[in-house]
Amino acid sequence: MVSADDVKKLAELSRLSLDDREVDKLRSEIDSIIAYVDTVQKVPIPDTASNSVHLEIENIMREDDNPHESGIYTEDLLKQMPRREKNYLKVRKILP
Amino acid sequence: MNLTDLTITELAGGYRRRDFSAVDVVRASRARIEKENPQLNAFLEVFGDVEKEAEKADALIKEKGARAHPLAGIPIATKDNILIKGKKISAASKILENHVATYDATVVSKLKALGALFIGRTNMDEFAMGSSTEHSAFGPTRNPHDLERVPGGSSGGSAVSVAARMVPVALGSETCGSIRQPASLCGLVGMKPTYGMVSRNGLIAMGSSLDQIGPLARNVSDAELLFNAMKGHDPMDGTTLPPGSEKKHSGKKIGVPRAFVKDAAPNVQKSFEVALAGLSKRGYEIIDIALPSAPYCLAAYYIVMPAEVSSNLARLDGMRYGLHVEGKTLREEYDLSRSQGFGPETRRRIILGAYVLSSGYYDAYYRRATALRSVIGAELDDAFQNVSFIATPTAPNAAFKIGEKSDPLSMYLEDIFAAPSNLTGIPAISVPSGLVERDGKMLPAGIQFMSPKMTDASLFVVARDALGEH
């Protein structure tokens, strides 16, 4: 059983603020979803089971150099910032 | 002749014969959208510059003649999670409502290079989370077969744009069934490629080990044409398969996992059997197979996907882009921006993901679900030793009513037959299997075919045979 405190803790970890009504609703919904997903416990898993299904795909690294001309995306990206000061992203104080 | 009824091949032929131009087709398409969209809500935005792009396509076709690609001048609708440079891209979420794409998705740049036209972005479940397109921040999309019903999801807007003849083809994306299920509910062809066959670069990530972009069309050939134009290795997506990965695959044996299929509604099963009987007349052999782990795939999916969602959506914090809500502290701004920006289903899946990834539960859920993926993968490999294709109904039900599935789990179960292919990365295609009755309405149902990894091309062969499309 998932408790209301569990949901509040998970919300905090997920950076979500929920009111009590939503906490209560989520608690019962997550309970029923977890009861369903728990059926995976019934499937016998051999010790040899791989931990990936994408075995034909290998990690590909690129060279550690500039992937594109410096600055070509800068203004487009800065334009999306909710709070901007010149070429800086402005946020609330981080250190207390 | 109605321009909005034509297939890609018919349109391309008309362009070359100068019967009509891409500008004519775009105008017809826009008129149809203007007429139909107010009640269907398939498009979130129609792009203002599409007619200008159509003029360029007409010039390209004139210059290249028969050497122009068949997709030149073809209007395509894109799901609102596929980036087009300079256009808004919201994933149907408040948190990205005014976000503008800063680059083209690889599929978009490939299609642009061929002269294809992007006409607008289509509605979807927020961040592709849902099976009905009711979880959009911009209202539900309605099924053209019955306006009281959902079109399926999450690529519901794309499916409806094609089903209502606003466009000949559209792009959708799948994490679990989000192309095939709306194709089934709207009477279309919808295809989920092998994982890694089509680049995910520029697709807003939901479950990165599952996501794939794929085509929605009114016939198999159009879906195939679009898939072929999009596929291929991409240096910008390290999970795309290397060049030359595609495998030749043929055969006329179709395996049916009967114990799994019985979860479908009786009339959907009946329509499935009729489709199989048709294939059997065309020389296919239908064989019963066992896939004992298949019924557990959806449960495994609802562990893996929320885990990936909770990680992927952590980047949306209201700081660098997207909705920003003022608060007294940095922390409060994160919490408020995310809570007001994400809808209820997205919040639910983020919390669920955080739960299954919690240190005490990681082994019981995430590790076990990951192992189950390889168990079902091995089961499918075994099955494909004896059969060329595996068939099931695409979805357990025809279109349900808007608001009918308010319990999240009942909505999730609509993707029961989709899960094996997404979890294991194999390709699958859904084609119409006929109409079934539900509450006195005749509604489309679909049959899906799966084949081994990297044998995507073979699916179009069996799909054509299923529809008698030659």
Annotate the secondary structure layout.
The complex is a heterodimer of chains A (96) and B (470).
Chain A lengths: L3 H10 L6 H18 L36 H5 L5 E2 L2 E2 L7
Antiparallel strand pairs in A: 1-2
Helix pairs in contact in A: 1-2
Chain B lengths: L7 H10 L4 H19 L2 E4 L3 H15 L10 E5 L26 H8 L3 E6 L33 H8 L5 E6 L5 H7 L2 E4 L19 E6 L2 H11 L22 E4 L1 H4 L4 H16 L3 E4 L8 H16 L17 H12 L2 H13 L6 H24 L2 E5 L14 H5 L6 H6 L3 E11 L2 E10 L5 H12 L3
Parallel strand pairs in B: 2-3, 2-4, 7-8, 7-9
Antiparallel strand pairs in B: 1-3, 4-6, 5-6, 5-10, 9-11, 10-11
Helix pairs in contact in B: 2-3, 7-16, 10-12, 10-13
CATH topology of one domain in chain B: Amidase signature (AS) enzymes
The rounded distance between the terminal residues' Cα atoms of chain A is 38 Å
Percent strand of chain A:
under 5%
Instruction: Please state the structural category of chain A.
Output: mainly alpha
Order of the strands making up the biggest sheet of chain B = 1-3-2-4-6-5-10-11-9-7-8
Mean pLDDT of chain B: 97
Q: Which H/E pattern describes the elements of chain B? A: HHEHEHEHEHEEHEHHEHHHHEHHEEH
CATH architecture term of one domain in chain B: Alpha-Beta Complex
Helix content of chain B: 25-40%
- How many beta-strand runs of chain B? 11
Brief summary of the model shown:
The complex is a heterodimer of chains A (96) and B (470). Chain A has helices at residues 4-13, 20-37, 74-78, and strands spanning 84-85, 88-89. With 96 residues, chain A is mainly alpha-helical.
